[in-house]
Design goal:
Blueprint lengths: L7 H42 L4 E4 L1 H9 L8 E7 L11 H18 L4 H4 L2 E7 L4 H7 L6 E5 L10 E2 L8 H13 L14 H24 L7 H16 L2 H7 L5 E2 L7 E2 L10 H24 L6 H30 L13
Helix pairs in contact: 3-6, 8-10, 10-11
Pfam family, one: OST3_OST6
Keywords: Endoplasmic reticulum, Membrane, Signal, Transmembrane, Transmembrane helix
Subcellular location: Endoplasmic reticulum membrane
Length: about 350
């Protein structure tokens, strides 16, 4: 039986549709590439308008650059989540962390200024809760501070990569490590603004030059506090306490002395359980215990040698040893509580 021959109208329709289909499949990738290039160009323009290079996003921008943009996208977004009503809370440190986030953005831009291709692959953004509550819900953000990395292939924003809460204590350096680990691009050195401006430094230098003759005259005459032994003893104890209490850690990372209890805001938390964070009061408590041990050792080595009565020497030595044992035991207990690791005594095999 002979095969049926298609009618002429059907052939004409096929001849008309085949070129259209070919043109569609040929032009679709190009249209997608043009759309992606437009998105990158808009992000670059928005970054150029920001002083720190951080792009401010709202719900409309999140929809355009993330949810509506087909994946894989030719860029990654590192997003800092902010809330204007919470900036006054000292425990969250949102203004400081936002400033540190801007330093990371500046460092990344300076590192890749000569490489436009790499500079167009990563963009730093921020989202404010008051004007972008829908975006917070899309990301599933329920607590601050919060930083997310949205990779090129991320389809669901809740599956984007989150920076750990314990890493915020490292400020810009920890944020830079997070960006490098997730994007694969180096950030570069963090350039912090100087603590003292050039004008203030010049005023201090001028004041030092004016006061120098009077200070030198008093030093030569021996009429200063620097000639008092008690001042040097107190200063030595202060330096020892400053070094063992983690005060430099608190200053560099701007750690709070305490935090409000999340379950009961009327209570304060002075000791944070977990090795990733240490509050200021906790460091001062440990520093006090270390200082007590140091003072007991100083008393035994520099004070008891002047005591002539052997009985009094032994009693004072026992008291110093008891106080030192109590202080060391408290430090070990705190370390066990924070880290979960216990300290065990191991006796030599000959003593068993």
């Amino acid at each position: 039986m002979a095969a049926s021959v298609p009618s002429r109208p059907l052939l004409r329709l096929l001849v008309f549709l085949l070129p259209l289909a070919a043109a569609f499949f040929l032009l679709t990738p190009r249209a997608r590439a043009d759309h992606a290039a437009d998105l990158v160009a808009d992000l670059q323009a928005m970054r150029a308008q920001s002083p720190s290079g951080v792009i401010h996003l709202d719900d409309r921008a999140v929809s355009r650059f993330l949810t509506s943009a087909p994946s894989p996208r030719p860029y990654s977004l590192v997003v800092f989540f902010d809330a204007a009503q919470l900036r006054s809370r000292p425990d969250l440190r949102l203004p400081q962390l936002r400033s540190e986030f801007g330093l990371v953005s500046d460092a990344f831009a300076a590192r890749h200024r000569s490489d436009p291709a790499a500079l167009s692959r990563v963009f730093f953004c921020d989202i404010e809760f008051g004007e972008s509550q829908s975006s917070f819900a899309l990301f599933g953000v329920s607590s601050l501070p919060h930083v997310r990395h949205v990779g090129p292939a991320a389809a669901n924003l809740k599956d984007s990569e989150t920076m750990r809460q314990s890493d915020f204590s490292g400020l810009a350096e920890s944020m830079a490590e997070f960006v490098e680990a997730k994007t694969g691009f180096p950030v570069g050195p963090i350039d912090r603004p100087p603590v003292v401006s050039g004008r203030r430094l010049a005023l201090l230098a001028a004041a030092a030059l004016i006061l120098a003759p009077f200070l030198v005259r008093r030093v030569i005459a021996g009429n200063t506090l620097l000639h008092e032994p008690q001042i040097w003893v107190a200063f030595a104890v202060f330096v020892y306490f400053f070094s063992v209490s983690g005060a430099m850690h608190n200053i560099i990372r701007n750690m709070p002395m305490f935090l409000p209890d999340r379950e009961d805001p009327t209570k304060l938390v002075f000791f944070f359980q977990g090795s990733g964070m240490q509050l200021g009061a906790e460091g001062f408590a440990v520093g006090f215990l270390y200082t007590v041990v140091g003072l007991m050792m100083a008393l035994a080595t520099h004070g008891l040698v002047w005591v002539r009565n052997p009985t009094l020497q032994r009693v004072a030595m026992l008291i110093a040893m008891s106080i030192s044992f109590w202080a060391v035991r408290k430090v070990v207990y705190l370390d066990n509580w924070k880290t979960g690791y216990s300290v065990h005594a191991y006796w030599p095999s000959r003593w068993r």
